[in-house]
Amino acid sequence: MFKKKTTLLYQLSVKDSLTQLYNRRYFFDFLEDTYLSSLRKQESFTLIFLDLNAFKLVNDTHGHQEGDRVLVSIGKIINRHLTPGDLAARYGGDEFALVFLKVNQDEARQRIDQLADELNHYTDSLNHLDFYVSLGSSDNQGKNLKTILDTADKSLASDKARVHNKQ
Asked: Which of 5, 39, 55, 151 sits a CA distance of 20 to 30 A from 122?
């Protein structure tokens, strides 16, 4: 009984209650551990940031219940693109972070493209909602942790600008 409650409390402390993805705090702990492990083992990983642009309008126009439904669906789509050992987290309200382990740049790009395709297909199917997905990424090769985060963030900003200009 005590072990069950302890396990439940732990899960509540590391998971986002809505999407059931990990939370931001757990993500940073995982990323730091992954980075240090990658240095020791000389293994690669890729950090991905994902943002639902103009998502506030979904909540403002259709209500938070509809917004929550979409966030849960996005979380499920993200989970389908993880392999054992990978991690996905709800980074903020409409922002997510993923870590793909033991992938080279080509493998990561292929998985990111597949994820983007499925997310875009999903958002396109929501005719009554007007938001779009942007993704940014960085591998760990030759970078310190701050640079990995900054590179993924700049890549996300670049994708946001590209997608916004197409709108």
From this structure: 151
